[in-house]
Amino acid sequence: MKTQSLLSVLLLSLVPLSGVSHASDFCQNAVKEMNAAYQSYRSFADDSHDEQAFYKLVVNTLKDKRSLDCHWSDLKLNVQYSPDKHLMSMDWQVDGGGTMKEFQSVLQYQKGKQPTVVNGSDGYVLGIHQMDIGGKMLYLINDWVAGYTALNGQAISLYTIKNHTPTPAKLIKTKQGLTHTIDFAYNPFSIPDELEKLIWVNAKQKEFSIPVVIENEQYPEGEVTKRVLRYRYNGKQFVYVK
Q: From CA 87, how far away is CA 69, in angstroms rounded?
């Protein structure tokens, strides 16, 4: 009886290990395939991996529930997570002319047994923040784009989760009405680092801020100043506060 009991324990212990091994194999193969496809696509060496084909490869990979066990540390794409690890962004550079840098991104919501994948922004994601607003989790995504050498842009976009799906949340009040995103253009030479995060999020105060950008003779595309514009959640939406 003791031998049978010990054998049963050993067999049971092998079940989760087998599942982990299966997921690990999937992750390793996924990273290898996406890296090879991306390199081929970016080098223009193989027409079989064009922009749309690579996009489908990424989306189909992230829709597979085994991807929830992947860490993507060896992936050549940009991967960012929310603090609670429930929302992940994955983006990559697509064709752009000259110094222009264009990106494609997707969002994967990971809470639960089956992931949900939707399109993200057209920028390089610098970070994902989160805050609780009335018992509902709000995700704030900060991304960056490059129009040309002296013209960059950053944006913050708001998402909530509806039916297990990341959904744009039109909670920012502007003069033009409610929107889920707010952005600004600037000359990157007016700051120390081109990829410096210029949007600040204070989850405790339920607010975010963007820099004041002014046009002048030295920086006609916009100089980033030390002044900021703050938007605070008033229980219904984010409004500008002085």
A: 14
DSSP 98: T
User: Which neighbouring-strand residues pair with 148?
Assistant: 151
For the chain, the residue count is 242
Report residue 96: phi and psi, to 5°.
-145, 155
Gyration radius of the chain's alpha carbons: 22
d(CA 75, CA 89): 13
Task: Give the Cα separation of 189 and 224 in Å (integer).
Answer: 9
Measured distance CA(104)–CA(191) in Å, rounded: 25
87: number of Cβ within 10 Å: 22
| End-to-end CA separation in angstroms for the chain | 75
Strand pairing category for 124-133 and 172-174: unpaired
5: left (phi over 0), alpha (psi -120 to 50) or beta: alpha
Q: How far apart are CA 157 and CA 139, in angstroms?
A: 8
Q: How many CB atoms lie within 10 A of CB 212?
A: 14
Model confidence over 21-80: pLDDT tens digits?
667 899 999 999 999 999 888 876 555 557 889 999 999 999 999 999 999 999 999 999
Model confidence pLDDT, tens digit, residues 84-112: 999 999 999 987 666 788 899 999 999 98
Q: How many Cβ atoms sit within 10 Å of the Cβ of residue 49?
A: 19
Tell me if the pTM is above 0.85.
yes
- H helices, E strands: number in the chain: 2, 15
Helix (H), strand (E) at residue 18:
helix 2-43
